[in-house]
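#lab-general

N.A. 3:47 PM
ok so I finally got the sequence cleaned up, no stray characters, all 162 residues accounted for. can someone with queue access submit it? mine expired

B.Y. 3:52 PM
send it over

N.A. 3:53 PM
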Amino acid sequence: HTRFKCAWISDVCSSDLLDEPLSGILQRVVNEHRLGVPIATVLETAAHEENNRHLLVTASAIALQSRRGGSLAEILGTVASSIEEEDRLRRDLLTVTADARLSANVLLAMPAGSLIMTSLLSPGYALPLINTSAGRILSVVGLTLGVVGFVWLRHLAQPEDA
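B.Y. 4:20 PM
back already:
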């Protein structure tokens, strides 16, 4: 039964049904499994090497099924629907946090844009920010606070692993 599964996977990998890098990963999994390494171990190793959470979840499900039994098709169907739902939630989260990311970009660009517009409309108006020591200190403080605010907003707007 295991040889049938590996032969089927090998046929799929060698055909044009899969693109790289998945084809190469599955071919490597099949080759290592043919050498006697348990399929769950091979999949977990490949998942860690590829740094792929979805493959790791799939490998864990296959390992659990091989130890405890049950319908592999049903387990993999549940895993696939869970992965699809996670991807949908990640996209929704990126959509919801897009406003905060835009705000971070505006926060960083607004002081520089204001300085440029002021210099164009009223030449010499911003010279005290460069010519006086207090102006230079305030410019550095303002720039530092702007960068801190930008980094903070970007951090708040980023999902944990996105």
